[in-house]
């Protein structure tokens, strides 16, 4: 974002711009771990891709670890090497993202999540 954004209020920014400001604020302290809670949930698909690419670039450049919370299995498998499936606040399965993509899961709850997302097409 350009320097002109520093004088804008949040209601004057788009969702993607607000997300970039939030990322910049989180990086000011140069953390080694960054918690991302539904980082693209309110964004349309094209802006989601831009934000995810930005996050990936930042992770590589700064050698960051991300702890990502999301209900979007496509984003999780794209951004994460490992994942933990949780149910009612409890970890039920810990696996590699590649195993989730291949549907190599052991728990019924994880299978049900995969079935629920079958055929889901993002419209916006």
What order do the helices and strands come in, and which of them pair?
Layout: H1 15-27, E1 33-37, H2 45-62, E2 65-69, H3 73-79, E3 82-87, E4 90-96, H4 97-101, H5 108-117
Parallel strand pairs: 1-2
Antiparallel strand pairs: 3-4
Helix pairs in contact: 1-2
Question: How would you sum up this structure, described in words?
Answer:
Helix 1 runs parallel beside helix 2. It is built from five helices and four strands, in the order H-E-H-E-H-E-E-H-H. It is of the alpha+beta class and 124 residues long. It folds into two domains: 1-70, P-loop containing nucleotide triphosphate hydrolases (Rossmann fold, 3-Layer(aba) Sandwich); 81-124, no CATH class. The longest helix is centred in the middle third of the chain and has 18 residues, at 45-62. The model has no long low-confidence stretch (mean pLDDT 87). Helix 2 (45-62) links the parallel strand 1 (33-37) and strand 2 (65-69). It is elongated.
Structure at a glance:
It contains five helices and four strands, in the order αβαβαββαα. It is an alpha+beta fold and 124 residues long. β1 (33-37), α2 and β2 form a beta-alpha-beta unit.
């Amino acid at each position: 974002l350009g320097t002109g954004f520093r004088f804008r209020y949040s209601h004057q920014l788009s969702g993607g711009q607000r997300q970039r400001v939030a990322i910049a604020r989180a990086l000011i302290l140069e953390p080694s771990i960054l918690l991302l809670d539904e980082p693209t949930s309110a964004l349309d698909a094209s802006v989601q891709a831009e934000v995810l690419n930005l996050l990936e670039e930042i992770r590589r450049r700064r050698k960051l670890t991300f702890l990502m919370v999301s209900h979007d299995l496509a984003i999780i498998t794209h951004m994460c090497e490992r994942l933990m499936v949780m149910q009612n606040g409890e970890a039920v399965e810990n696996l590699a993202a590649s195993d989730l993509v291949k549907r190599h899961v052991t728990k019924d709850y994880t299978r049900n999540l995969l079935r629920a997302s079958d055929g889901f097409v993002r419209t916006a």
